[in-house]
Design brief:
The protein is α/β, with parallel strands linked by helices. The chain has 2 domains: about 140 residues, Ferritin; about 210 residues, Aldolase class I (TIM Barrel), CATH 3.20.20.70. It contains 16 helices and 8 strands. An 8-stranded parallel beta barrel has the order 1-2-3-4-5-6-7-8, surrounded by 6 helices. The longest helix has 30 residues. It is elongated and about 85 Å long. The mean pLDDT is about 90.
């Protein structure tokens, strides 16, 4: 049917094609905005998935009458151009506001596209619906990532696992000392304590550090994170999943995951976790393992992460001390997680300083 025939005889079809055209453009604009936010916030997996979503939408719309869509366009006469709210001209909260606006634009336009497609091109409506539901999840992941302080994580090099088997005042003083020595992250890890004692020790650690230079993470226990305002949570492969852990924590909490082989690293990248631990590298007195991923695993991770267009922070872990640190550096790792080498050292602050000096040596 020609455009003039539509105008005369089927104005509903003309209006419907104008709706498709306008919302298709709006959705592509929103998706590209979200893709670029993910890209320039170094969220490689989210960036890839937004790009895939754009291609899915393009494929779903490929069966539509493109000539009629273009012919029905009448942007200069669109009455909606003049009906804007004051909030549409403001983005007071920077990237977060831009992301929220783009996410809403995508979701609303996809819903409109789905409804009109049911009328004009019903064979494509199911694909549009699938894209809409995928967008809901992706938008939530991106918006939540913007609430987490990932820049601090990007700069972290030394991560110390701390047990709580000492009087709380001595514990707090040790936390304070290693924080001042340059430890970026301290994980509270002690499976022997009950919940109330874990809360006490975690709060004591948070009170002991300057949060501009050191953050406190809790091992396994999302409930302790919620009760203490800890910065984040670390989980293992047999603990709560990434999505389950996210559902139990505040949006601004960082989440780390232990990995023991390359497939687990790939899954971690896809899951949107904030950092990974990689190991065990060497035998450890802190936590016994039946087998060790070793240095070859670290070399694989060092190659994999850039090739996956990812900047996911990866910390080597397991039996690491000053004597074997050079081997990790040779594998491409300058982030390490340690326990005994710092926490149980006779001079913990000095041990931390020595490890940081070694990690930052050039050549």
């Amino acid at each position: 049917m020609k455009l003039e025939d539509l105008t005369t005889h089927r104005p509903d079809l003309l209006a419907s094609h104008r709706m498709l055209d306008a919302n298709l453009n709006r959705c592509f604009e929103g998706l590209r905005t979200l893709e670029d936010i993910a890209r320039f916030r170094d969220q490689s997996e989210l960036q890839r998935r937004y790009k895939t979503l754009r291609h899915q939408l393009q494929a779903a719309a490929s069966q539509w009458d493109n000539e009629l869509l273009l012919a029905s366009r009448n942007a200069h006469a669109d009455v909606g151009r003049e009906t804007k709210t004051a909030s549409e001209a403001l983005r007071s909260d920077g990237i977060a506001d831009i992301c929220e606006a783009a996410a809403q634009r995508v979701q609303q336009s996809l819903r409109c596209l789905e409804e009109v497609a049911k009328f004009l091109y019903p064979d494509s409506s199911a694909a549009i619906e699938s894209t809409r539901y995928q967008a809901y999840d992706l938008n939530a992941m991106l918006l939540l990532s913007l609430q987490r302080d990932l820049q601090f994580l990007d700069l972290a090099q030394l991560y110390v696992l701390a047990h709580c088997q000492m009087p709380i005042q001595a514990f707090q003083e040790r936390v304070r000392d290693i924080s001042r020595a340059g430890v970026s992250i301290i994980q509270i890890r002690d499976k022997r304590l009950d919940a109330q004692d874990l809360i006490r020790y975690t709060r004591a650690a948070i009170d002991a550090v300057d949060l501009r230079q050191t953050r406190i993470i809790v091992n396994d226990r999302a409930d302790i994170v919620q009760c203490t305002d800890a910065w984040g949570l670390h989980v293992g492969q047999t603990d709560l999943s990434v999505s389950q852990s996210r559902s139990l924590m505040r949006a601004n909490c960082v989440l780390g995951l232990s990995t023991h082989d390359v497939n687990q690293v790939k899954e971690a990248i896809a899951s949107g976790v904030d950092y990974i631990g990689c190991g065990p590298t060497f035998p450890s007195a802190t936590k016994p393992f039946d087998s060790y991923a070793g240095l070859d695993f670290l070399k694989e991770v060092s190659a994999l992460i850039p090739n996956a267009n990812s900047k996911l922070p990866a910390f080597a872990i397991g039996g690491i001390d000053l004597s074997n640190l050079s081997q990790l550096i040779d594998c491409g790792f300058r982030r390490v997680a340690v326990s005994k080498a710092v926490w149980e050292s006779e001079l913990p602050a000095r041990a931390a300083e020595s490890m940081l000096m070694k990690l930052n040596q050039v050549g």
